[in-house]
Write a structure and sequence with these properties.
The structure holds two protein chains of two kinds.
Chain A (H helix, E strand, L loop, with lengths): L3 E4 L2 E4 L5 E7 L6 E7 L5 E8 L5 E2 L8 E7 L2 E6 L8 E9 L8 E4 L3 E5 L1
Parallel strand pairs in A: 2-11
Antiparallel strand pairs in A: 1-3, 3-8, 4-5, 4-9, 5-6, 7-8, 9-10, 9-11
Chain B lengths: L2 E3 L4 E5 L4 E3 L2 E3 L5 E7 L5 E7 L5 E3 L5 E5 L4 E6 L8 E8 L6 E3 L3 E6 L1
Parallel strand pairs in B: 2-12
Antiparallel strand pairs in B: 1-4, 3-9, 5-6, 5-10, 7-8, 8-9, 10-11, 10-12
């Protein structure tokens, strides 16, 4: 259980175009999702936190007008990279908190990531 | 602010040898601690987590980790490494509101035949 499906896994786009990345929680409701960015051979850096039905909270240095996040339902959050440039090429990963049914704590589950290449 | 340090960027071990990956954290209260593994071009898979209770935590794939509050550490161990364990390993700490993770820089594990 607690699976997050992320699509697409790879995308190549031309500079100046926009790309949408989707994350869906398949078997649980994700009121909060997180978007991370990972440069080659580096760790994950949190970009923003999205909450269902409200505006996303962006980390310092992340341009909210460039990285549009929409969390319109309890099972879907999207990240749109607008007017993409080569420096936006990166690995983007979403994550969601899941709470178990019954006793015990939940945790964080991650999507499989999206490799964005802007040419 | 919470932070996580993984002192070893790269580690190479022989197949069958034991493994210990170090993780030190900084957090003001009781931390929620995680170890994730990432294969090239893939997302993250949770190996194990610690919230409370027994400080020795068992995870998947034969991994375990021990929470040592006095040392602010949460080191990952495996008694016998397999070639398929070669990957990037990330330690992470979550805040007590359960709504954010801070990752360490990662340790790349290579396994020699």
């Amino acid at each position: 259980g607690a699976v997050v499906s992320q699509h697409p896994s790879r995308v190549i786009c031309k500079s100046g175009t926009s790309v949408k990345i989707e994350c869906r929680s398949l078997d649980f409701q994700a009121t909060t999702m997180f978007w991370y960015r990972q440069f080659p051979k580096q760790s994950l850096m949190l970009m923003a936190t999205s909450n269902e039905g409200s505006k996303a909270t962006y980390e310092q240095g992340v341009e909210k007008d460039k990285f549009l996040i929409n969390h319109a339902s309890l099972t879907l959050s999207t990240l749109t990279v607008t007017s993409a440039h080569p420096e936006d090429s990166s690995f983007y990963i979403c994550s969601a908190i899941f709470l178990p049914k019954g006793q015990g704590r939940g945790g964080y589950t991650f999507g499989s990531g999206t490799r964005l290449t802007v040419v | 602010a919470q932070s996580v340090t993984q002192p070893d960027i790269h580690i190479t071990v022989s197949e069958g040898a034991s493994l210990e990956l170090r993780c030190n954290y900084s957090y003001g209260a009781t931390p929620y601690l995680f170890w994730y593994v990432q294969s090239p071009g893939q997302g993250l898979q949770l190996l194990l987590k610690y919230f409370s209770g027994d400080t020795l935590v068992q995870g998947i794939k034969g991994f375990e980790a021990e929470f040592k509050r006095s040392q602010s550490s949460f080191n990952l161990r495996k008694p016998s490494v397999h070639w398929s364990d070669a990957a990037e390993y990330f330690c992470a700490v979550g805040n007590n509101a359960g709504n954010m993770l801070t990752f360490g820089g990662g340790t790349r594990l290579m396994v020699k035949p």
